[in-house]
Specification:
This protein is 45% helix and 17% strand. The chain is an alpha/beta fold and 233 residues long. It has a single domain, classed as Rossmann fold, CATH 3.40.50.300. Helix 3 runs parallel beside helix 7. The longest helix is centred in the C-terminal third of the chain and has 18 residues. It starts with 5 loop residues before the first strand and ends with a helix. Bound molecules: cytidine-5'-monophosphate (C5P). Cytidine-5'-monophosphate binds next to helix 2, helix 3 and helix 7.
């Protein structure tokens, strides 16, 4: 049997990380961990707690209520996805809203939150055999993962893909608004002090501006086969 590895996929917002990660997890029968969904879940909780409603809000005030959060991930075999539960409620469909997308990067800057989620992610991945996507996986969460991919693409193509995805889910949002949110999140993710989005020196960069899914998968499975066979020796 092949040795199980950790595949870390980092990259810019809407650069196609989850599409690739899902395809890989299906093929290798690996667990897929969408760390962005975990940050989104906490952002949803903060919105419900109305922490952004005051003009004088300070995200630090949110820390004492963090202990009220019970976050659980459950593998959903039928849809080949990890369902995410916030205090027992499946919030999978609620975390992609515009409101959550607009606030999540503020939440992702809080060190206590990053620490809490990093511990959870490392725990889920301790037996390997996972594909995990996010912003800080290769540099921080699993710096020794066997395969690290860094995804990028032009802002226009990323915004367009995201816009199409949201439209498909029935969200009424304009392309311009989607693009603005992606530019904002990129800026927040690369400029934050703790675990910013940064290509690690040992990751393989994929710019998919001009690559379709099939081409990306061909490329990635070549890399995976090489890694699985070399980590056997
Ligand atoms: O991947 P997704 O776009 O759903 O992530 C939502 C947000 O969560 C990102 O814009 C980023 O601010 C934050 N995030 C992060 N670190 C991760 C994953 C996501 O800071 N590992």
């Amino acid at each position: 049997m092949n040795k199980k590895i950790i595949i870390a996929i980092d990259g810019y917002s809407s650069s196609g990380k989850s599409t690739l990660a899902k395809a890989i997890s299906k093929k290798l029968k690996y667990k897929y961990i969408d760390t962005g969904a975990m940050y989104r879940c906490i952002a949803l909780f903060a919105i419900r707690k109305k922490i952004f409603d005051s003009h004088f809000y300070n995200t630090k005030n949110f820390i004492p209520v963090l202990k009220e959060i019970n976050l659980k991930l459950k593998w959903n075999k039928k849809y080949n996805q990890t369902d995410i539960f916030l205090n027992g409620e499946n919030i999978q469909d609620k975390i992609r809203s515009e409101k959550v997308s607009n606030k999540v990067s503020l939440i992702a800057q809080i060190p206590e939150i990053r620490e809490k989620l990093t511990i959870m992610q490392r725990n889920i991945g301790k037996n390997k055999g996972i594909v995990i996507d996010g912003r800080d996986i290769g540099n921080h969460v699993f710096p020794r993962s066997e395969l690290k991919i860094f995804m990028k693409g032009s802002i226009e193509i990323r915004s367009y893909r995201r816009y199409q995805e949201l439209k498909k889910r029935g969200n009424e949002i304009s392309y311009e608004k989607v693009k603005k949110n992606i530019i904002y999140r990129d800026m927040m993710d690369i400029s934050r002090d703790i675990s910013p989005l940064k290509k690690s020196t040992d990751s393989i960069e994929i710019d998919n501006t001009f690559l379709n899914i099939e081409e990306q998968l061909n490329l990635i499975f070549k890399l995976i086969n090489k890694k699985i066979t070399t980590s056997l020796s």
